[in-house]
Amino acid sequence: MKMTSEACVVSGIKNLDIKRQDVNYDGRGTLVKITRGGICGSDLHYYQHGKVGAYAVKSPMILGHEVIGEVVVSDNPALAKGRTVAINPSKPCHVCKYCLGGDENQCVEMRFFGSAMYFPHIDGGFTQYKIVDSEQCIPFDPSVDGRIMVFAEPLAVAIHAVNQAGDIHGRRVFISGVGPIGSLVVAVAKAKGAAEIVTADPSERCRQLSLTLGADKSLAPDAQDWIDYQADKGFFDITFEASGHPSSLGRCLDVTRAKGTIVLVGMGGAIPEFPMMTVIAKELRLTGTFRFVGEFRTAVEWLEQNIIDPLPLLSAEYAQRDFTEAMEFAGNKSVASKVQIVF
Q1: CATH 3.40.50.720 fits 156-288, yes or no
Q2: What are the residues whose beta carbons fall under 8 Å from the beta carbon of 152, sequence distance 6 or more?
């Protein structure tokens, strides 16, 4: 089966285009008609800077890894034509030591949608039609609003982050940086039974969103309350650093109680003078979190069951033809949280 697909392509800094590409389905995997996608921070980095970290765009690449769609044809009988599916953008190798150990997010040959890590690059899901491995298609109830199900991927990231902290039920939780991922961490912590959730962010808009998603209190970085939270070696049992900014990590170290846990969610640069003695003296547990494993399926189930409502984070929807306008709006953090593309 051969068809033409219009794809949202980045070729360099501020260089976007809608390009027509041939899609050839040979009977292997699942051909999906993409219906909707969410713009992520990595998409914005490729657009604004032409790279993410050290991985620069060297040739035209299709963006997008937060996508849903409908099955056109599949080699899996369970994926009938018209079936609504959320697409897991992770494609691990299944043979490396991490995959065999159940840690597929650490796969040494991961092929993740919309990534310039390899060359040729791994195309993403912002295209009208895409062929994927059938195991990447997670069916969902067609009665669920597509605007909600597009949040499956970022919600999976948030669920994995909270899982990294261990048992959160009845704990006092602090989340520093409540952009889309930080706000979803709030919602997940709430759903998992956190006793108290406090957030911090310079943006009043983001602080209000965190309250909507379940925070009990949200503070500006210069609020006086921090003095109380630092007393007696800290107040919070578990903190999530979700901004990637050095000052944010410093606050997390200050307000986390001795023997507490800090989960590093935000992707930031190097910290020249990391306060190692604070970690040592307070016996803090410091852990990272990266993407997700089985949490993608959990995220789909949670959204189906309305355990979490992510729609307060949806700032705007754009037609595919207005892709550049959508990226410009999404990059304006004074007004935008999550922006979706309709295909």
Answers
A1: yes
A2: 66, 68, 86, 138, 296, 299, 300, 303
Among the residues of the chain, which ranges form H helices?
A: 41-49, 97-100, 146-149, 152-164, 180-191, 204-212, 226-230, 246-255, 276-281, 295-304, 323-330
Q: What percent of the chain has pLDDT over 70?
A: 100
List the CATH code of the domain at 2-151+310-342: 3.90.180.10
Q: Please state the domain extents for the chain.
A: 2-151+310-342, 156-288
**pLDDT confidence of 274, banded at 50, 70, 90?**
confident
Tens digits of per-residue pLDDT, 245-267? 989 999 999 999 999 999 999 98
What torsion do the CA atoms of 268, 270, 272, 275 make, to the nearest 10 degrees? Answer: 60
What pLDDT, in 10s, does the model give residues 296-307? 999 999 999 999
- 73: β partners: 31
State the Cα angle at 42 between 25 and 34, rounded to 5°.
30
In the predicted model, is pLDDT for residue 320 greater than 90?
yes
